[in-house]
Amino acid sequence: MSCLRRNALATTSYWMISRLPSLSSTSMEPSEKDADKSLARSWRPARSLASSRHVVNHGVGEDVIQGFREAATEFFRMPEEAKLKYYSIDHNKPFRIFSGSLTSHNDGNDIRYWRDCLKLRCYPVERLMHQWPSQPEMFREHLAKYAVAVQELARRFLRLIAEGLGFDNHDFFEGDLSGGETLMNVNYYPRCPDPSLTMGIRPHSDRHLLTILSQGEVSGLQAKYRGRWIRVQPIHNAFVINFGLQMEIVTNGLLPSVEHRAVTNSAKARMSVASLITPKMDCRVGPAPAMLDEKTNPPKFKDFVCSEFTEAYEAAAGNREAVLDFFKIHHTQNPACVNQQFNMH
Ligand code: OGA
Ligand code: NI
After folding, report:
1. Ligand 1 lined by 272 (C-beta under 6 Å)
2. pLDDT single digits (tens) 84-114
3. Counting atoms of ligand 1 from 1, which one is nearest the CA of 272?
4. Do the beta carbons of residue 307 and residue 275 sit within 8 Å?
5. 269 C-alpha vs ligand 1 centroid, how far in Å?
6. Is the CB of 116 under 6 A from ligand 1?
7. I want to staple 262 with a disulfide (CB 3.0 to 4.6 A). Which of 16, 115, 129, 200 is the partner?
8. Could you tell me the distance, in angstroms and rounded to a whole number, from the CA of residue 272 to the centre of ligand 1?
9. Burial 123-134 (b: 16+ CB within 10 A, else e)
10. Is the previous residue joined to 124 through a cis bond, with omega within 30 degrees of 0?
11. pLDDT above 90: residue 345
12. H or E stretch covering 67
């Protein structure tokens, strides 16, 4: 961590945090253009390794993070009866609580996962905030501040990724590609009497472009690296940024999505807040033309409308390989045709 500069937006890979061999580390001053460039460049050499990162000194105030985390903790502390009326499996509800699984599909072996999740649409704030829980009292106010700050961080990050990938258009991800309603999972994992029997969230890759996760002080998140699960040790006030499956597809596999899961523990409850940066539902998504070369790097995936992706994700229950299989191009198809269909903006 010695290379992190004061007041810098700095990123380190999971592996560095976990004291495994260090693979990449970068830092930047938010106000300095040169420093911005150095972070952007870091995506190049590190790009295939950087599917999840810790970001510190990110510019989102501690008061904003803690303010919302406390409000969300209060929400889960409300009496059962107050929360029960929000329990629903209806995806169309503006906000709801559900227990257990990530998708509507259960595992074949009917495992129950040790999680309550408050799921809501959190950005754009002005349009959505009247739909959020009105209790506890300050919940909406804190969520509004948090959602705006995290969205700005995501916007900045996406610009750096575009720059780091060498795209001429640094706004590549702006517009429809990241302009869907941002979803939020507020995950609450109660103390689990026997963590060997179940997990909080099963292994999955997130479906969206990017997830910005505040995991609080209690560990539980694990990421798959070279076939092994490694613990992502929380860092005070840091965010974990994970690439989702749609980022993997847009970059034609160059920025792979990270498979992750959450384990429980018997000593402490844990709460995490995941903000999921999402394309518009009617946006066409596919490998970016700037990533492709007809001979050396043909498209590996078909393009799709975002809503089709949701169906595939549900059917594959979030499993990375199974979701990607839906969209993989098997080599009988002519890459040039697929290329022509691509129209992101
Ligand atoms: C999620 C998720 C991990 C965590 O909400 O998609 O993976 O640490 N959460 O709670
Ligand atoms: Ni996830």
Report:
1. yes
2. 999 998 888 889 998 876 555 555 556 778 9
3. 10
4. no
5. 14
6. no
7. 200
8. 7
9. bebeebbeebbe
10. yes
11. no
12. helix 62-77
